[in-house]
C-alpha cells in the first residue's frame, strides 16, 4: 500500500510519521488489498486536524478528525477509517453472498 503523509502549516516530524505508521496495521489487518492512503495534517489555531483518504478496490473512503492534540486526531481518524472499511467490506461480502445465493436458486 502506498502511504502519503503531508502537512499544511505544520512540519511532519519523524515522531508523527512513526505514529501514523504504527496505526497502519489496523487497516491492513482488515483488508490486504488497500491501494493507497493519503493523510493531510493541519493546524488551525487550537484545532489539530487530520484528514485521510483511503483508496480500496472499487471505492474511496474519506474521514477527518478535529482534536486539541495531533496524536489524538490521528487515532480518531484511524478509528473512523477502520469503521468505514468494515462497513465497505460487509457490503462487498453481502453482494457476493447474494449473487451466489441467487445463482443457486435461479441458475
Please render the helix and strand layout as text.
Layout: E1 2-8, H1 14-30, E2 34-44, E3 47-56, E4 59-67, H2 70-106
Parallel strand pairs: 1-2
Antiparallel strand pairs: 2-3, 3-4
Structural summary, described in words:
By secondary structure, the protein is α+β, with helices and mostly antiparallel strands. It has a single domain, classed as 2-Layer Sandwich (Double Stranded RNA Binding Domain). The protein is 50% helix and 35% strand. It has two helices and four strands. The chain has a four-stranded mixed sheet, covered by helices on one side. Strand 2 (34-44) and strand 3 (47-56) form a beta hairpin. Helix 1 packs parallel to helix 2 (70-106). The radius of gyration is 17 Å and the shape is elongated. The model has no long low-confidence stretch (mean pLDDT 90). It comes from Dyella telluris. GO terms for molecular function: ribosomal small subunit binding. InterPro entries: HPF/YfiA_ribosome-assoc (IPR050574), RHF-like (IPR036567), RHF/RaiA (IPR003489).
Amino acid at each position: 500500500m502506498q502511504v502519503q503523509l503531508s502537512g499544511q502549516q505544520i512540519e511532519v516530524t519523524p515522531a508523527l510519521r512513526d505514529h501514523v505508521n504504527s496505526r497502519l496495521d489496523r487497516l491492513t489487518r482488515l483488508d490486504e488489498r488497500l491501494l493507497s492512503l493519503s493523510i493531510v495534517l493541519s493546524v488551525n489555531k487550537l484545532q489539530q486536524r487530520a484528514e485521510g483518504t483511503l483508496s480500496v478496490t472499487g471505492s474511496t473512503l474519506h474521514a477527518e478528525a478535529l482534536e486539541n492534540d495531533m496524536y489524538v486526531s490521528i487515532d480518531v481518524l484511524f478509528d473512523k477509517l477502520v469503521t468505514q472499511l468494515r462497513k465497505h467490506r460487509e457490503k462487498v461480502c453481502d453482494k457476493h453472498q447474494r449473487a451466489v445465493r441467487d445463482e443457486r436458486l435461479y441458475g
